Amino acid sequence: MHSNYSLFYTLDGDHPACFREARVFGTTVWTAAGAAMTWGEETRNGYASEAEAYVAYAARCQAALADGYTLARESAVDPAVFDFALLQTLVADAARLAFGAVRRAHPDQHLNAFALVSDDSAMTIGPMANSREALAASEYGEEMLWNPAEWAFDDGGAYFDSAYRLLLQAHRTLPFDVDSDTFRTGVFDACIAALAQLDAEGVFGTGVQRDEGVLLFEVSDSEPLEGALARLNPPAVVARFEAWMASWTE
């Protein structure tokens, strides 16, 4: 059963502050609203016909605009297909903005690490960053460099709200028919591809600067994804990680 979907935001500066969503499928209109990067509050209403449901859906969309929200995304949704290409685009855009936000918020820090962190069910995506200064001050030493949960900065998380909304369709009680393993694998690959795309653009530095910086994708409370570190980093960084790992067996 295909759906029509619309996402609206109010903004705080250049990042989402509050969201509204509306979706119509069959004779049902579903909505959600709340602060960015939260689940929000849901409503669900049934109608006598699909035509009536669509009229109600359109009215919800018009009400959002009248209340000062801006349309961010609208699409037709096939519950049997997840748009991993769109997810990669949303994550890349958000990560670029988040990295810039860290730089602006901490101009005295020399950033040397950036990561995206998800969870085992692929429901969340968030940024973490670290600096040479934070690493030097840490009691954990080199171990801190490879553990984003211990990093100092998490600025820019709200930029990921649009990607978060896309992921939530797999976790809410909505029509969704993509196999969970396919979904999880595809989400993680899209996040890695988004970081690789930004790295190729030079967002995280070039040359010697890049060789000194670490780029990671991590799934919290899970084993590292095979091949992700090498896919995202130059040989110098991979060698540094391998040396650190070897030190644990000495």
Question: What are its keywords?
Answer:
250 residues; alpha+beta; 5-stranded antiparallel β-sheet; 3-stranded mixed β-sheet; 8 strands
What secondary-structure arrangement, pairings included, does this model have?
Blueprint (H helix, E strand, L loop, with lengths): L2 E10 L2 E11 L2 E8 L5 E6 L3 H17 L3 E8 L6 H22 L5 E8 L6 E7 H6 L4 H4 L15 H8 L11 H21 L6 H5 L2 E6 L8 H5 L2 H13 L3
Parallel strand pairs: 6-8
Antiparallel strand pairs: 1-2, 1-5, 2-3, 3-4, 6-7
Overview of this structure, please?
The chain is an alpha+beta fold and 250 residues long. It has nine helices and eight strands. Strands 4-3-2-1-5 form a five-stranded antiparallel beta sheet, with helices on one face. A three-stranded mixed beta sheet has the order 7-6-8. Strand 1 and strand 2 (15-25) form a beta hairpin. Helix 2 (84-105) packs antiparallel against helix 5 and helix 2 packs across helix 6. The longest helix has 22 residues, at 84-105. The radius of gyration is 20 Å and the shape is elongated. The termini are far apart.
